[in-house]
From TrEMBL:
SUPFAM superfamilies the record matches: GIY-YIG endonuclease (SSF82771)
InterPro entries in the record: GIY-YIG_endonuc, GIY-YIG_endonuc_sf
Pfam families hit by this protein: GIY-YIG
Name this protein carries in UniProt: GIY-YIG nuclease family protein
Organism of derivation: Tamlana crocina
Domain GIY-YIG: residue ranges: 1-71
């Protein structure tokens, strides 16, 4: 999960590559939701055996549509 202080928004996604490489793509020039800010930072990660499992987890979190749930996940690892 990424967070932008400028937008005060979270971004939930998954990657099959390294998390830091993926963050750099979000910070570079591209189209999409994360292109609206350049201050994204990693605030939460989870590891999975497969990209499919990671994608299922992403969908689960997004279906919750809850900022409170996301912030509880982040606090759970602090």
């Amino acid at each position: 999960m990424l967070y932008s202080q400028q937008l005060d928004k979270y971004y939930v996604g998954h990657t099959g590559s390294s998390v830091s490489e993926r963050l750099q793509k979000h910070l570079s020039d591209h189209k999409g939701f994360t292109s609206f800010a350049k201050d994204w930072q990693i605030v939460f990660t989870e590891a999975f055996e497969s990209k499919s499992e990671a994608y299922q987890r992403e969908l689960y979190i997004k279906k919750r549509k809850s900022r409170k749930y996301i912030e509880e996940l982040i606090r759970s690892v602090e």
